[in-house]
Amino acid sequence: MGDGNGLYQDAAVSPIPRKPTDPDYGLTLLAYGWWVRLCERVGEQRVVHQRSFPARDHGGMRGAKRAARTWRDQLLARLPQQARRNGRVPTLRPLRPSRAGLAGVQLVVKRQQGRTDPYFVAWATVVWDQNRRSTQHYNVRKYGWRGAYLWAAYYRGRAVDEPLTLDALRALRSPSAPAELRIWLETHGCFRRVRYSDFDEPQ
Predict the structure, then answer these.
(1) DSSP of the chain, one letter per residue?
(2) Residues pairing with 129 in the sheet
(3) How far apart are the C-alpha atoms of 33 and 54, rounded to whole Å?
(4) Distance of alpha carbon 178 from alpha carbon 154, whole angstroms
């Protein structure tokens, strides 16, 4: 959350914290384009500035991203110079970074209260469509550790109209399993080969 007056990236924007110097600061990739959401702290009040940039209105996803960045930069340029000198804004809310490092893909681990071993582990992909959040889970016990990760990435790519080819999937590095999960994953046979034949090659 921002302290003082000024703009800061809202928690709804991204599961991955972004620095103000990040070119995608305040931007979210949607199924149909890009979305900008910045919050302005004015005293005790919060003012939300947001706008979506559909790909169909900007000649495709790249054009929508350029338009979103331009609009975001215009917002940031309005910040008082004094606030910039004091380094108060823009700042970020404390967000939990994704284990994946791949936008829109995250690891989900569910445990019962008081239990060490999880009862559900999955790779999940999050897609925004018309400002609605949709999550698709891929259970590692069904797909395997790497397989579940690749299925989440594959679904994500199709949802945002950037499908991954089979070569791209093979080249995609899956994150290392957390140390606290390795024994559980090995016990349930989650480290197994991926059947790339199950994926359809983009047309």
Answers:
(1) ---SSEEEE-TTS-SS---TTSTTTTEEE-SSEEEEEEEEEETTEEEEEEEEEEGGGTTSHHHHHHHHHHHHHHHHHTS-HHHHHHT-SS-B---PPPSS-STTEEEEEE--TT-SS-SEEEEEEEEEETTEEEEEEEEHHHH-HHHHHHHHHHHHHHHTT-PPPHHHHHHPPPPPPPHHHHHHHHHTT-S----GGGSPPP-
(2) 132
(3) 4
(4) 22
Question: What's the confidence (pLDDT) of residue 8?
Answer: 46
Average pLDDT of the residues of the chain: 75
Asked if the bond preceding 90 is cis, omega within 30° of 0, the reply is yes
Nearest Cα residue to 13 out of 192, 22, 138, 184 = 22
Go through 189-201 and write b for each residue having 16 or more CB atoms within 10 A of its CB, e for each that does not: ebeeebeeeebee
Q: Are 124 and 105 in contact (CB under 8 A)?
A: yes
- What residues have CB less than 8 Å from 71, skipping those under 6 apart? 36, 51, 53
Q: Which structure tokens are listed for 123?
A: 């790779």
Judge whether residue 143 has pLDDT over 50. yes
